[in-house]
UniProtKB/TrEMBL annotation:
CDD domains with a match to the protein in the record: SCO
InterPro entries in UniProt: SCO1/SenC, Thioredoxin-like_sf, Thioredoxin_domain
Disulfide linkage: C78-C82
Protein name: Electron transport protein SCO1/SenC
Top-level taxon of origin: Bacteria
Length: 206
């Protein structure tokens, strides 16, 4: 995953919209000691999308009903945040009780459809965990989905080699079995904190 990205790439991964949303949520809810992530129940819409999977098939949110779902926006050429996040999520899920692992699903949505073909996306997500669902779509579809969850993404100008950076949120949205938005996982959470939240949520409505 060698990339020629701007040195300041890390500094603007957390975009204003998602930061403002997190601050607002914190102010409305306070610190809920029962969760390590931010409780966003009732503050964001339920999970809904119609995107393209890694085999070129259409995948909808209803195809995955009944599972705890973790939604993360990124791209396969991402030099740091995406691989770090996917690795952490994979480790957290694998540390859950076996019966709950199969009920928990990570959805990685690439916001770089120009480079991330279904085939490339499949190779990428399989490297971290073959159970991760890789998804993408055309830019208008992706922007509409990002807007639904109060975030956005953007593209830098390509360099001389055609490489370009993609800005995107580093937050992970967690939805319960009914597709309701429940938690916002911040990058600073540990693998074990994520594991604890996922177990609690899975057992809550199992």
């Amino acid at each position: 995953m060698n990339s020629h990205f701007p040195a300041n790439f890390r500094s603007w991964l957390n975009l204003p919209l998602i930061l403002i949303a997190t601050i607002v949520l914190s102010g409305c809810l306070g610190e809920d000691s029962s969760w390590h992530g931010k409780d966003i129940q009732g503050l964001m819409p339920e999970l809904a999308f119609e995107l393209t999977g890694t085999s070129g098939e259409t995948v909808t949110a209803s195809d995955l009903d009944g599972q705890i779902r973790l939604l993360f926006f990124g791209f396969t050429s991402c030099p740091d945040v995406c691989p770090t996040t996917l690795q952490k999520l994979s480790q957290a899920i694998k540390a859950m009780p076996p019966e709950l692992q199969s009920q928990t699903q990570t959805l990685f949505v690439s916001v770089d459809p120009q480079r991330d073909t279904p085939e490339r996306l499949a190779r990428y997500v399989d490297f971290f965990d073959k159970r991760i669902v890789g998804l993408t779509g055309n830019e208008p579809e992706l922007r509409e989905l990002a807007k639904r969850y109060r975030t956005t993404f953007g593209y830098d100008e390509p360099d001389a080699d055609g490489n370009y950076a993609v800005s995107h949120s580093s937050a992970v949205y967690v939805f319960d079995r009914d597709g309701k938005a429940r938690l916002l996982l911040r990058p600073d959470l540990s693998t074990d904190e994520i594991r604890q939240d996922l177990i609690a949520l899975a057992r809550e409505n199992s």
